[in-house]
Write a structure and sequence with these properties.
binds fe (ii) ion, single chain, about 190 residues, about 75% helix, Four Helix Bundle (Hemerythrin (Met), subunit A), mainly alpha, globular
Amino acid sequence: MPNEIFKLRKEHVNFKKMLNLLEAQLDLLHRGEEPNYQIMADILYYMTQYSDVSHHPREEAIFSLLVERDPNRKQDVAEITRQHHTIAEAGTSFHKKLENIINGESEIMQLQEIEVPGRFYVTILRAHIEKEEQSLFVMADKLLSEDDWKGIKTDTRLSRSDPIFGQDVEERFLFLCDQLTQIDSDKHP
Ligand SMILES: [Fe+2]
Ligand SMILES: [Fe+2]
């Protein structure tokens, strides 16, 4: 498997952890318990500042080469690119809502005003990841040449270090990291 695909798949594993954690908070809310709005906001901040800014553009660089190699993929790639926009918009708007609650700028909203956009975000991102892994990554792996991968790799404009799973954890994500570590240690005591 090309290294770039390996890295993207690894990031998907991290994003799925984030979505599970977000979903657990939405479940609390649904049951009438108090969710942790800070955790939710941190997750959305990470997704909008890392996934939308680095992961998705790196994928688009790969997918645009894939269309050059196989024009039949054009529709699929256009759909995935549209989804990147939808995910970024949904994430930014949901993050803003959560920040407003945390900063006391808006009353705690009706259950649906948080739960609906939260569930929507989780659902579209999970389906998106599935589609990339089942089809476009597989096609890219088959159709792109060594030189294609070298070109993608040297295009460093799109890379930035992961503020949670990279070498150093950014200070603002330490709390979220703690939560992730706790979940991992609950699963593997
Ligand atoms: Fe994507
Ligand atoms: Fe992806």
